[in-house]
Amino acid sequence: MAEKERPGGDAAQPEASTTASPLAPPDPQVLSVHLTVNGEARELQVDVRTTLLDALREHLQLTGSKKGCDHGQCGACTVIAGGRRINSCLSLAVMHEGDDVTTIEGLGQPGKLHPLQAAFVRHDGFQCGYCTPGQICSAAAMLQELRSGMPSHATQDLESAPPFSDEEIRERMSGNLCRCSAYPNIVAAIREVGEASE
Ligand code: FES
Ligand code: FES
Question: Among 179, 181, 187, which is best to mutate for testing ligand 2, by the most ligand atoms less than 8 A from CB?
Answer without folding.
Answer: 179
